[in-house]
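input
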Amino acid sequence: MSGEYGGAWGNSVGTILVLFILLVIILSAWV
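output
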């Protein structure tokens, strides 16, 4: 997920995806 497609736009989307996945993992760990 280095954002090679779409340049900076793909990079920011990849970052948002990683943060969202981490948030889901933390929430599921809490529950």
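quick obs: The CA atoms of residues 16 and 22 lie 10 Å apart.
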